[in-house]
# Entry
Amino acid sequence: QVTLRESGPALVKPTQTLTLTCTFSGFSLSTSGMCVSWIRQPPGKALEWLARINWDDDKYYNTSLRTRLTIYKDISGDQVVLRMTNMDPADTATYYCARCLTGYGDYADYWGQGTLVTVSS
Amino acid sequence: DIQMTQSPSSLSASVGDRVTITCRASQRISTYLNWYQQKPGEAPRLLIYAASSVQRGVPSRFSGGGSGTDFTLTISSLQPEDFATYYCQQSHTTPRTFGQGTLVDIK
# Structure
């Protein structure tokens, strides 16, 4: 049974760095074809893809946010971390992590419940 | 970045209706196209990948089609649990991009 859960602060101040952790089970990110993506959704708005890390440690980022984002696998092997620097109120959103499968493009077949992050002083 | 444009942005339909949502890519993406359903307060759910492959567990009333730049998601007979927002996403090029969503609500 595949599960994912996002964790991190609910409130961050402008200019601070956000660190979110995706803890997953039911699959191994060492398995060929596996990946984990981060997607966010501002209140009442559309989904926005942020970043992805593959089983082989290849990493991919949203073009406009690339300089602010870092994605990496935790040494534990069952966590993926997303860091976003210089947070702004416009970054207020629900942040989701999702398992994805590569091969023909990629698609996210299991999602976490999401975590709401509010950026405010 | 590839822009994804969905139409309509919203539609009202009745139970039993056939509903079609369109997604257009700003450049050709072959069949690298996914569809997700999202209900209020919930995470998105994968419906269709590779333009026309139905995810396990998704009812057969959902189907996808298209290639190149133009794609469709069709619900053959709308059920009460299908009232939701639907998003297309291209997986041809990084960064992956989503459409703006189509809200399907009750007429």
Summary: The mean pLDDT of chain B is 97.
